[in-house]
Design a protein that fits this description.
By secondary structure, the protein is α+β, with helices and mostly antiparallel strands. The protein is built from 19 helices and 27 strands. A hairpin with a 4-residue loop joins strand 1 and strand 2. Helix 5 packs across helix 7 and helix 11 runs antiparallel to helix 12.
Length: about 725
């Protein structure tokens, strides 16, 4: 996305500077925020032998204080970026490339949402947010030399809430219509079944490589994850199992951070969060656990507004309503200076408005202008049984993402969680809607009882791998499509990972009626493709190419014809398959245009010849996991269960994985209900601290597909602790 980077931008910016004399040092125009209410906090941070912090406190707020402090010890740089992002100052910290994030924060009125909704949060939730903010402030006060942006601290609970508001809608793809509208490009068709005959503006268009910079750190259309829950009947020992395999960027503001929390108020949880959150987003407590996978139902609607001649009002139900507008300044770092760049953001009764050469378009999306996700995460963290957990989920604060659930009682479930708009029939909700008709403007969302859910199926398992919820538990155990209204926009997509997961789970059950621990481990680390769906169609296109006039491409074609459909790094064609399948999966997952296979073959050959001198280098020489001085081979691909989803091309031509398998956790409850778990991260607990022993200490285990213990029981932690400290904030 070339927002704020179009031709002439720098010239216009400096012209404005010269004309107005606004070349300033940015800190002069920034006022520090009000700190949280003063109170005493005390937390004990115990680190195990892998540096994972276990935070203990008398109250939940004490624990949140310790969570922030411990995370700052490991990754204060990223926490500062998240803080700057929530303040609309990311471009001040990181320059012009980050300006779109500041623009989006203003467009979505993040600050307004917090102002309107924050005081309505439960007092204990606000207490946890303030405790977390106080922990960040304490670390910043004690380490002023690490602060990268003046007047960024102190922060308060409202700042923490703002981070949730800004990032949440981008997990279900709000970046896509924003990007298309700003660039005045056709909107792609939303997911879910068609509701009428095709129309021109529903044509699927490929997205450019130049993505809008999103607050989630990566394009949601590239995200993935796998999740499995297995009932006791599938275990010889009668245990319940949960496998969490989220696919996130390995670095940045949505990279997983592992932690364990223990509060005397009953908050006991092991799992992982994102920078800027006091709550783990997935993992387990003593009684239950869950993991998440990205889902993509149609939760976004676009409205074409009819403006008056002056562009100051829009027509709505026969009346003219004033178009809300607000003048903002994007403060963009250029060298030692910060340049204020003017923008206007607009709003209608529908939501934020983007104006382009084709007109004015309003967006309405799930979870808009609400903070209930904070309450929901807090309550599911502390839920003690399935009923409490479902009651917390029914609060519907989290706008999207699947939840794969398991508990000590042997319950399992797959919830296609989403805040489905309560849409009226009579409109094609997959396309641009009329902005002048109130009947097209939904006001409420469907209750949690309408969410597609599969609980305790006869198959004994549930799974999701970013696929339609209608495929979740094997043949004969699936949800029925006709049970759900097409107005909900439920996706029909399948992935290789979903097809392969069902195939492997069903085969294991068919063999002896059980799935052993070794088998479920093999399934999670599987690197194969099913010869079906987009992958087969794409490989068939390659096989059908007439390459008689291109001898080297013909050799590639012949090698791929013999490929064993497994990216385990053992086959001669694995590198070729890894690279040529990536564009096909991207087009499939983005519901976009399939590229020219001949062009992809040529680009792949050119790259391999340039850097490796041949077309068939061993895949494990090409695909690497790299951090600091550690450089290791890794297997898997962009849509294999063992996921190496995205990579950077390094100077030596090798592909350095930056997205895919990230935080992995295996949880089980035995017959007595006792919980235990194992986990692994790609690098270590201190991903931005090269001097830390935990900068790369998990990498070898990660590439070798091994796990480490999670010392959830404090008694076991005492035997495996590496350090301990107490952090306090005394009321002034």
């Amino acid at each position: 996305m070339k927002l704020l980077k179009r031709a002439g931008l720098v010239f216009l910016v400096f012209l404005a500077v010269i004309a107005t004399g606004l070349m300033i040092w940015e800190p002069l125009g920034v006022s520090p925020e009000t700190p949280p209410p003063s109170r005493d906090y005390e937390a004990r941070i115990v680190r195990d032998n892998f540096g994972v912090p276990h935070i203990f406190g008398k109250t939940d707020a004490d624990v949140a204080y310790g969570v922030a402090y411990a995370h700052a010890e490991d990754d204060f740089a990223t926490l500062q970026e998240v803080t700057a992002m929530t303040r609309g100052r990311l471009a001040t910290l990181n320059g012009a490339d980050a300006a779109p994030v500041d623009y989006v924060a203003a467009l979505l009125d993040v600050g307004g949402t917090v102002e309107r909704q924050y005081d309505g949060l439960p007092a204990n939730v606000r207490g946890v947010l303030d405790g977390y903010a106080s922990g960040l402030n304490a670390y910043a006060d004690e380490h002023p030399e690490e602060i990268s942006l003046s007047k960024l601290f102190p922060v308060n609970g409202r700042d923490i809430a703002a981070g949730f508001v800004l990032r949440s809608p981008f997990f279900f793809g709000l970046n896509t219509p924003i990007q298309a509208l700003i660039e005045n490009r056709p909107l792609r068709r939303e997911g879910g079944p068609s509701l009428s005959a095709p129309v021109e503006n529903r044509t699927v268009h490929p997205l450019s490589e130049d993505k809008i910079v999103t607050p989630v750190g990566s394009d949601p259309d590239e995200n993935g994850s796998n999740g499995y829950a297995l009932a006791p009947k599938l275990s010889v020992e009668g245990k319940t199992r949960l496998i969490s395999n989220s696919h996130q960027p390995l670095r940045g503001n949505v990279a997983w951070y592992e932690l364990v929390v223990h509060s005397d108020e009953g908050w006991d949880f092991a799992g992982a969060n994102f920078p800027g959150s006091p709550f783990p987003f997935l993992g387990h407590n003593k009684h239950l656990g869950w993991t998440n996978t990205v889902n993509r139902p149609d939760l976004i609607d676009i409205y074409k507004l009819t403006l008056n001649e002056k562009g100051t009002a829009y027509r709505f139900d026969g009346e003219w309503l004033p178009l809300g507008k607000k003048h903002i300044w994007l403060k963009i770092k250029y060298g030692p200076f910060v340049i204020p760049y003017p923008k206007m953001v607009y709003r209608s009764v529908h939501g934020p408005v983007i104006r382009n050469d084709s007109g004015a378009y309003a967006l309405r999306y799930a979870g808009m202008d609400q903070l209930d996700m904070l309450t929901q995460y807090y309550r599911i963290n502390k839920a003690r049984d399935f009923s409490e957990w479902q009651a917390a989920m029914a609060g519907q604060g989290v706008p999207a993402t699947n939840f794969i659930y398991a508990d000590a009682k042997g319950n399992i479930g797959m919830f296609y969680n989403a805040m489905f708009p309560d849409r009226s029939p009579g409109f094609d909700w997959r396309t641009v809607l009329p902005g002048d008709n109130s009947k097209a403007l939904w006001q409420n969302t469907l209750p949690f009882t309408r969410v597609p859910a599969l609980i305790n199926p006869a198959s004994g398992y549930v799974m999701n791998a970013n696929n339609t919820p209608y495929i979740a538990a094997g043949p004969g155990n699936e949800l029925k499509r006709d049970t759900f209204s097409p107005l909900m926009g439920i996706e029909d997509d399948q992935t290789n990972r979903s097809r392969r997961s069902i195939q492997l789970l069903e085969a294991a059950i068919a063999a002896d009626g059980r799935i052993s621990d070794a088998e479920i481990r093999r399934i999670k680390y599987d690197t194969a493709y099913v010869r079906a769906g987009y992958a087969k169609d794409w490989m068939d296109k390659i096989a059908a190419l007439d390459l008689k006039d291109h001898p080297q491409l013909a050799k590639v074609q012949a090698l791929l014809a013999k490929w064993d459909w497994n990216l385990d790094g053992k086959g001669a064609a694995d590198t070729l398959a890894l690279m040529v399948l990536r564009p096909a999966n991207k087009a499939h997952y983005q519901r976009g245009k399939v590229p020219d296979p001949k062009v992809i073959l040529q680009e792949t050959v050119d790259h391999l010849n340039k850097y490796f001198g041949k077309i068939d280098p061993p895949m494990l020489d090409v695909l690497r996991l790299r951090q600091g001085e550690v450089d290791l081979p890794i297997d898997g691909g962009n849509d294999t269960i063992r996921a190496s989803t995205l990579w950077d091309v390094d100077d030596d031509g090798r592909l350095s994985v930056r997205h895919g398998d990230s935080y992995i956790m295996f949880v089980e409850w035995d017959k007595t209900g006792k919980v235990s778990s194992r986990s692994i991260q790609p690098f270590g607990s201190a991903t931005t601290r090269p001097d830390s022993p935990h900068y790369t200490d998990q990498m070898k285990l990660f590439v070798d597909k091994k796990l480490k213990p999670v010392w959830f029981d404090p008694k076991l932690l005492e035997k495996n602790k590496a350090s301990e400290k107490t952090v306090r904030s005394i009321r002034k």
